[in-house]
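User: Modeling request: complex.
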Amino acid sequence: MIINWTAFLEVFLAALIGSITIVTFYALGLRLLVRSGRAPVVAPAEFTDAITVISEKEARRAEKAAAKAAKRSPLTDGQKSVALVGAYASFTVCAAAVLGGILLILFNH
Amino acid sequence: METAALIIVLVIVLALFFDFTNGFHDTANAMATPIATGALKPKTAVLLAAVLNLVGAFLSTEVAKTISGGMINEEEISATIFPAIIFAGLIGAITWNMFTWLLGLPSSSSHALFGGLIGATLVGVGAIAIDFGVVVSKVILPALIAPLTAGIIAFTATKIAYAVTRRYDSRPDGRDGFRWGQIFTSSLVALAHGTNDAQKTMGVITLALITVGWQSASDPDPQMWVIIACAVTIALGTYMGGWRIIRTLGKGLTDVKPAQGFSAESSTAATILASSALGFALSTTQVASGSVIGSGLGRRGSQVRWRTVGRIMVGWILTLPAAGAVGAAAAWIVVWFEGMGLGWLGILIDAVIAALIITGLFLRSRRNQVNAGNAMSGVAESGTAVRVKRNPPPTRRQRALAREEARRVAASEAAARKAAKSAAGDAKKGDRR
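Assistant: Request completed. Predicted assembly structure:
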């Protein structure tokens, strides 16, 4: 019985780094999007969960709250556009990571 | 030759059916969390997964040289009995897949196939043909490692996702946006699944064709019709959507929120891709389940239902022996009839029994249907919150007792009537006197 612990460690580290990269940059992108005054409000495509149902009214209210928060933001327009650029840059990093995954699928076989 | 042809045709049919069960068993791995958080409509999600599985199956057609990955010394098995062993192994794998689907348990289809083949080989050839060291290092150990690895990664990822988007001023935190991301990470998992799992069936069919001489051994690539058949079957299976397993993975383990779903799916995708790129095979199902548990632990205030986790773990432990037992029984029937020179009859009996069991399991599933409409609805939850008084149908013992009681009542009534009648008769007689 031979267990390749080095291979396992490699898999663990590669998966950890890949996963953390995607999640960190995506979350950072969302954070910067909120900072730039464009908080995303994405209502569920289907209201599946009976306990945490968000009605359309509540979704509209959330959008209104986001708009209000954006209006009250103490940031200047310049700071906001820097945040927006940062958000898009973060999403680009995520897209690149996902693309890397697809390339790995394509060329690993 | 006719017997060999019959077995090969049955092996191909069973292999394709296994591919189908593999598809619907594994839809949940990619699509349970986006369905649970409402990132995608249930029907859209399974359609997306089906298309990506179809594409994935065509992307990679390099099949494994051995179907068991070295667990069975395939050289030790003679060409005459090999198709029968694959046949019996497939029966074991399909039966276990259908059974776990009925219970809504995510379990590894490849482990079920390995279990069935090992059981069939034990009966058909003997323990000498099995390398138990490889079984431990390729099935048992990864089954412990995979959920743990994925769980730790998903836990860390979930913590990070919440930490980065946390706000203390109760203004919108934008966590809704994780729903968009979920679509991409889940799609990645579905694509990776297609490239891995359809190849297994292609390998089984190609190996069967080579064994019987319908394909030359010098050209071990799967033929075009095999690729198309496998790809279409796994896509169809995926589109059927194993809603029971989607319910378990999406709602049964923990209440998944978009940030958790995104973290869990990116952990699953990263772990699967890393494991297949670096050659340390891990089961997609076990990785996906581990990820969902890890993400459940990573969010403050969320609960992991450890009872369900326990049931799933028991399912994983039983996969190899249970599929093996069915495979062994199927192989035993073939071997027994082979001894009488009627190998084809054994195969036919196996096929009929397998068809009966599968039909029985399917009919049992119709009693409480789970589909796109109710997989994630609150009905199941309200059932646990509000204790509904249920009247289960009486057991055989209760029915016998009821019959006995009815008979006793009838007898005593008859006796009373008789007594009354005779009393009346006596009275009449008395009157006459």
